[in-house]
User: Which sequence fits this backbone?
């Protein structure tokens, strides 16, 4: 895979950061839309560790972009952007966090149950079966069941989605497992939120009111540690605003305003 993928024309001072971990390519629709009026980088996180992904992102931004750069991070990519801005504040101009995970453990307790409650009984049984497969050491190919699990979660996460195709380039379960274990521990210990004290740039969080990741798990913790923070809640919107029929246009309107 070419890393980063590049859209539009120079200068490249904006980058979209995908979620997962291990879900390279999912931010392509956002990159294409924004590239109609500006240059966009789409870094692909391929390192199999949290520390490695932070270093990888820094290298891509410095080599392919024009720092300081605005990072638009989605889901796990919001956390990764947050960590990168704390560790390398001089190369980051602004953070836009979309559908971020909660920054404190207490807010994350009900996410799985919320998702299950939105699915049919066969779909819930499918998730249980896939989780058993992924946790079985004898399973050879874990990328395929991981991708299937992602499709079911995407269905549960959406409010009123448009018919769109997945644009994942590569689904890598081992990347997810390694990176998420480290990231989850950072949240449990409080170290993730503490990093906010080192962030110097403005931060804007955009969150859907139907996102199973609770909005207050982003708004309340970040309001307590960031020097410059704004929170925007989108109505009738799930985890991915750009696929939502009722929120997509408003999402891009807000995003463009934040980038001007």
Assistant:
């Amino acid at each position: 895979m070419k890393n980063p993928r590049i859209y539009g024309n120079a200068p490249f001072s904006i980058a979209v950061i995908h979620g997962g971990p291990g879900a390279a390519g999912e931010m392509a629709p956002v990159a294409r839309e924004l590239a109609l009026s500006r240059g966009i980088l789409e870094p692909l996180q391929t390192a199999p560790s949290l520390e490695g992904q932070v270093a990888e992102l820094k290298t891509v931004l410095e080599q392919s972009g024009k720092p300081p750069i605005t990072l638009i991070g989605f889901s796990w990519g919001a956390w990764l952007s947050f960590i990168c801005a704390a560790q390398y504040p001089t190369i980051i101009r602004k953070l836009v966090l979309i559908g971020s995970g909660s920054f404190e453990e207490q807010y994350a307790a009900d996410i799985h149950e919320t998702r299950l409650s939105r699915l049919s009984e066969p779909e819930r049984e499918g998730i249980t079966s896939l989780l058993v497969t992924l946790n079985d050491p004898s399973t050879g190919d874990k990328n395929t069941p991981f991708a299937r699990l992602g499709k079911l979660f995407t269905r549960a996460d959406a409010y009123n989605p448009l018919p769109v195709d997945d644009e994942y380039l590569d689904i890598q379960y081992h990347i997810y497992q390694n990176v998420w274990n480290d990231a989850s521990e950072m949240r449990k210990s409080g170290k993730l939120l503490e990093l906010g004290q080192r962030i110097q740039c403005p931060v804007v969080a955009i969150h859907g009111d139907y996102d199973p990741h609770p909005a207050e798990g982003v708004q309340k913790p970040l309001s307590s540690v960031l020097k410059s923070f704004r929170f925007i809640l989108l109505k009738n919107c799930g985890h991915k605003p750009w696929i939502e029929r009722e929120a997509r246009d408003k999402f891009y309107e807000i995003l463009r305003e934040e980038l001007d």
Summary: The longest strand covers residues 92-98. The mean pLDDT is 95. Strands lie at 5-7, 14-17, 23-24, 40-42, 69-74, 92-98, 170-171, 203-208, 229-234. The two ends are 30 Å apart (CA to CA).
